[in-house]
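tmp note - Simple sugar transport system substrate-binding protein
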Amino acid sequence: MRRRTSKRTAEDMTSTAPPTAARPAGGGIRARGMLALAAAGALALGACSGSGGKKAEESAGPGSERMTVAMVTHSGPGDTFWDIVQKGARAAAGKGNVEFLYSADPDGGKQAQLVQAAIDKKVDGIIVTFAKPDALKDVVARATAAKIPVVSINSGADVSAGFGAIAHFGQDETIAGEAAGRELSRIGARRALCVIHEQGNVGLEDRCAGAKKTFGGRLENLFVQGTNMPQVKSSITAKLQADKDVDGILTLGAPFAATAVDSVKEAGGKAKVGTFDMNKDLVASLKAGTIEFAVDQQPYLQGYGAVDALWLMKHNGNAVGGGRPVLTGPAIVTRDTAAAIEKFAAQGTR
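out:
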């Protein structure tokens, strides 16, 4: 679940030419996470290779006719996290002869309208996020009634199957939060902030709630306006200036971690910063030690796996996940392990 920087309407839903991209590195912290990686590997092997169009259709064999998949999320282009999700989706689309459509809106009602637009287009599959699940429940039911399979990613693992989705790809946000809480304790924090940049986003709230369970000190939620980074910085700085005992900050997205580091400097404090999610700049910060850790949910794997799941359902009747979420994380990245994924982050797939 993540943040958003732009809005698109139903009319803006356009096809993107899916380029070939590298496959993601796997990772997870529990047995279910390992099973998820095995499933993802099976997905990668199960679909055909190719670059789309007639050539891909011919190489894929019988039953591999062109299909259209729409992804509708609560974020949009320009956000580093969702750019990685889309890279994974386009990579799977490119080798599976899939036309990939992307649209997004942070407003739950407008997101539902975009899903309805995909239904009206009679696409072959829909990928959604359940950051605000109540807003999407009815429209997803209409999709399944129209016999359009739905896969959810990133947020809403607990409601996905009940809403009729055939699979969910993402991390368990509570488990991921628990991992973050342990990391806050490991770096020596005792009085920490959990910075929530989108009120009402259930996944973000679950992360903070999970962190509170395992953190050995006191963790307080701090709500900020995620669409306005200067305001985010101002809010964090003001809190640090008002409470000198804060020695740890947990942000829920990579761009917010960099802003938190700036806030610590401006406030003259010594709070250590950890975060959720990855991007190229964050890897450099981890290596430099300005950010202590990142909880990576491997967004490339979410996009890739979701498109592959729909491809396999259409062309081979496969069901992925066995009715349970396919976990793509959490994978903890620290200063000691950042170098191992640096090249993948540089190419925009981690």
